[in-house]
C-alpha cells in the first residue's frame, strides 16, 4: 500500500482489497477492468484470462458487488470495457512487430455457443449481468477513437470504438450535467470523440485523461472520494488530484502501482483518519 497524501494505492487483488474498505465511502467509481482474452498482464490470478467469457463476467460481478457496498447510495460507476472476437481456439497470438504488446502465449478457448470469428459481445454481457444484479444501467456511451490501432483483418470494418457504461446504485443519484462539456462549451452527448493515449511506461492500455475528466466532473464534488479497483498506472488518480478529489486505486500488478505513484501529482489534502484505519 502506498500513500500519496489524498490518494491511496493498493497492490492487491481487487476483491480482497475492496473487502477491507468502508461501507458507502466513495462518490464515484471510474474504472476499466482487464478485457477478456486480449492482454496477458503477467500476474497470477489476473482477471481477463478465464477459460470462458461466462466465468469472466461472473468474476467481475463479484467485484462489483463489493463496489456496490463501498459506493454511496447516490453514487455512480463509469465502466469502460472493450469487446473481443473468438480466437478460433488458437492457443496464442503471434508477435506483432509494430505492436509487440499484442502477442499472447495464452488465449482462452471459444466460449460455448460462439463460433470462430464471432464478435463475442463482452461489454453487453457484463452490462446485462450488472443490470440483473440491481444496478441501474443509465447510459451506453460510444468512445470513438480517431487514432485507434489498425487491425490486420480484411473481411470486416476495423474497430475504432469502445463502450463506456454509466451505472447508478439507486434510481436517484448525484449528477452534474454541467460537467459534461466539450472544449467549445457544447454538451457532450452519447458519442465521445477522444484520441487514444500513448504511454511510454509498462502499461499499454491506459485511460486518456480527457475520457476521465467529464466522468469526475459530472459525478463528484470537491473533496469527494473516487475509486478505481483496476487502476493500472493511476490516470484516474492523477485527474482526481488536479480536481481536488480523493482517490483510492487498486491493482494486482505491483509494477503498475509503482508507476501510478510517480504519475499521480501529490496534493495537500490528507486522507481521512477513517480510511487510514480501514486500510491499516
Describe this structure in words.
By secondary structure, the protein is α/β, with parallel strands linked by helices. It has helices spanning 14-18, 53-70, 122-132, 209-219, 235-242, 254-263, 273-279, and strands at 2-4, 7-11, 26-31, 71-81, 136-144, 161-168, 191-193, 225-228, 246-251. It has a single domain (2-279), classed as Rossmann fold (3-Layer(aba) Sandwich). A 9-stranded mixed β-sheet has the order 1-2-9-8-3-4-6-5-7. The longest helix is centred in the N-terminal third of the chain and has 18 residues, at 53-70. The model is unreliable at 98-104 and 266-273 (pLDDT under 50).
Element layout with pairings:
Blueprint: E1 2-4, E2 7-11, H1 14-18, E3 26-31, H2 53-70, E4 71-81, H3 122-132, E5 136-144, E6 161-168, E7 191-193, H4 209-219, E8 225-228, H5 235-242, E9 246-251, H6 254-263, H7 273-279
Q: Spell the H/E element sequence.
A: EEHEHEHEEEHEHEHH
Structural class: alpha/beta
CATH third-level topology: Rossmann fold
Total number of domains:
1
The share of residues in helices is 25-40%
- Please list the strands of the largest sheet in the order they lie side by side: 1-2-9-8-3-4-6-5-7
Q: Any idea what the CATH architecture is?
A: 3-Layer(aba) Sandwich
Task: Work out the radius of gyration.
Answer: 18 Å
- What's the N-to-C terminus distance? 9 Å
Amino acid at each position: 500500500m502506498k500513500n500519496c497524501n489524498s490518494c491511496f494505492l493498493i497492490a492487491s487483488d481487487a476483491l480482497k482489497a475492496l473487502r477491507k474498505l468502508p461501507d458507502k465511502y466513495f462518490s464515484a467509481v471510474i474504472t476499466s477492468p482487464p478485457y477478456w482474452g486480449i492482454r496477458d498482464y503477467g500476474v497470477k490470478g489476473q482477471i481477463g484470462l478465464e477459460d470462458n467469457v461466462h466465468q469472466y463476467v461472473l468474476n467481475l460481478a463479484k467485484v462489483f458487488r463489493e463496489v456496490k457496498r463501498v459506493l454511496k447510495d447516490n453514487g455512480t460507476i463509469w465502466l469502460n470495457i472493450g469487446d473481443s472476437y473468438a480466437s478460433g481456439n488458437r492457443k496464442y497470438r503471434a508477435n506483432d512487430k509494430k505492436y509487440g504488446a499484442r502477442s499472447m502465449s495464452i488465449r482462452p478457448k471459444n466460449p460455448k455457443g460462439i463460433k470462430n470469428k464471432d464478435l463475442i459481445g463482452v461489454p453487453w454481457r457484463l452490462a446485462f449481468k450488472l443490470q440483473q444484479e440491481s444496478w441501474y444501467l443509465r447510459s451506453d456511451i460510444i468512445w470513438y477513437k480517431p487514432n485507434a490501432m489498425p487491425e490486420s483483418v480484411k473481411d470486416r470494418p476495423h474497430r475504432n470504438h469502445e463502450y463506456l457504461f454509466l451505472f447508478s446504485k439507486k434510481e436517484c443519484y448525484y449528477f452534474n450535467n454541467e460537467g459534461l462539456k466539450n472544449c467549445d462549451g457544447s454538451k457532450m452527448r452519447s458519442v465521445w470523440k477522444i484520441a487514444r493515449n500513448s504511454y511510454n511506461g509498462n502499461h499499454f492500455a491506459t485511460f486518456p485523461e480527457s475520457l476521465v475528466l467529464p466522468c469526475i466532473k459530472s459525478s463528484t464534488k470537491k473533496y469527494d472520494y473516487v475509486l478505481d479497483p483496476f487502476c493500472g498506472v493511476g490516470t484516474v488518480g492523477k485527474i482526481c488530484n488536479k480536481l481536488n478529489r480523493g482517490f483510492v486505486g487498486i491493482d494486482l500488478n505491483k509494477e503498475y502501482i509503482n508507476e501510478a505513484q510517480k504519475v499521480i501529482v501529490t496534493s495537500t489534502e490528507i486522507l481521512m483518519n477513517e480510511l487510514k484505519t480501514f486500510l491499516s
